[in-house]
Write a structure and sequence with these properties.
Radius of gyration: 28 Å
Number of domains: 2
Helix content: 40-55%
Distance between the termini: 68 Å
Number of helices: 21
Structural class: alpha/beta
Strand content: 15-25%
Amino acid sequence: MARIPTPEEALRSFPGMVRWFNPPLLLDTARQAIASALFGQYADRRLIQAALDTSGDNQCAARADLSKRITAREDGSVWIDFVADLGDGFDSTYAIAYLLGRPSLDIQGVGALPRGQVLIMGGDQVYPTATREEYDRRMRAPYAAAFPDSKNPDADHPLLFLIPGNHDWYDGLVLFLAKFCRGRDTALGSWRATQHRSYFAVQLPDNWWIWGIDTQLTEDIDQPQASYFVAAAKAMPPNAKIILVCGVPSWLKAEESAEDDAGKKEFYRSLDYIAGIAKDEAQNATICAVLSGDTHHYSRYSAEPSKTQFITAGGGGAFLHPTHQLNDKIAASWVRTGQTLSLTTEPGGEHKETDTAACYPTKEQSRALLRGNRRFVLTNPEFCVTLGVIYWAAYLLLSFGQSDLLASGMFGQMPGAFWSWAAQILRNVLSAPMFIVIAGILIWSLYQYADEKSPTKKMRLSVPHGILHLAIVTGLTSLLPPINAVLLGLAPGSAWAFWLTAAEFVVVGGLLGGLIWGAYLSRVCGKDGHHYNDAFSAMRLDSYRHFLRMRIQGDELTIYPIGIDKAPKRTDWRVNEKTAKDDQNEPIYLPTKSLGEHLIEGPITVSTPQVQSVEQVEKGT
């Protein structure tokens, strides 16, 4: 029997942040993404789970009612937590799980905020891909340690509801369904998952509802899911108030990726469809807030004239995404009507315009963080080595057929003919047909990589980038044979010269290529927000982590966005000596210093009488 590791040993063994620029990982993630997309087209597992769930509409509506398991507190309030994009590095994931599991948080300016009676996970519960091992060590283990499971009759077991993100879909949703959609209480620490499908509708006191939708990888609502929400909408009493949870912030993705207005409408298709169900099947329902993860920052847009709040809060543990590329105003589609989304509104009251952008980190902080890509070589050595190997392969192709020059009589004339020799090699390289082929392949590859929609702008990004990499190849190809001959006396074409040149290309070329790649990402991301995912994943920042704590009371929704500026290091955790069986409020690991939790903004107040119902939005009243 294998020995169970001690808490100290387990702490040391937990994974760090995913190294996204590790080439084998990039290839494996791409392979799984392609496979899952194809699988989703021809064998959508949402259809299978719906077929296995034989519950009728009435039974689905009945189990949405959580009144028997969730009761309002003495003041009539119910508390809900929302977190998304967790399951990356242990330290950032556990830091947020630790805060979520505390009985209450004393936040400056607002006082004690009790633990949520419901925890909503908004997608991407694991990185980089959905495997059993990654789910267990990157997601389940941190959450079980932060809020240990307890069989004590007096223990608190908040309900857990989840929707999948794209990373959960990379295995075709197999493990997500197996772990969280069993239709019976399933423990994640002391939280309890109870749902039957990868989407859910739950009813809370005061006619509040939470709808969590699963749009798979293509922003698509399958027919059984649509029927499920139709049944839920029909069961709603009049004047229902809905918090809608989706896996992707369509309002941001449309701005980033759509080429025209028609393309933007495709991104809003799922949101409009679900809102349309609420309009057609429920009586005077209001969608007060739309919550999403997927993008790993905090931002809040207020819709005008509907007053619906669109909040992205993907701060559960994954690497940070920037905010400086966000537009202050977005022309959006909501309930198939035009809306203006504003990033610059006050969090409370009537959400009036202000000069402050509702995002975390601030745009100024976001731009400043890009300086971290100056260390690209240090943070992504595997990628830099790969660049060096590519340069060396190009050198072999360019030097093929050049043996007469490399082994010419100039070798015996060193050092006086050094520059003549290097210049001659350079002239031969530039005039070789293979140079045109290599240059074409390189620039074409970088053109495809360029994060831009316009072909002209893609050329502006890719051509200068490609020229710099070609300069490394031609420069090292011209200089290394003469240098090795002069300094080490190695005749070109010898075995020692061959392997030394290979090592030089990998080390020197990789170093130079990494510096160029880091500078490129910093430049294009800082200027126009291009490649923001790559620029920030390369740095693997675990700072500016956050989650939402929400209170519903009567007709009012109050949202407390809680953040920590920096996650603790591994050495900032210690084993809790008070941890005991069945004591859920004693986590296994404690921080050695305060996490510095604070309000990002707000609190955000949403008074439902001030928000237009979905019927009013469509009518434009």
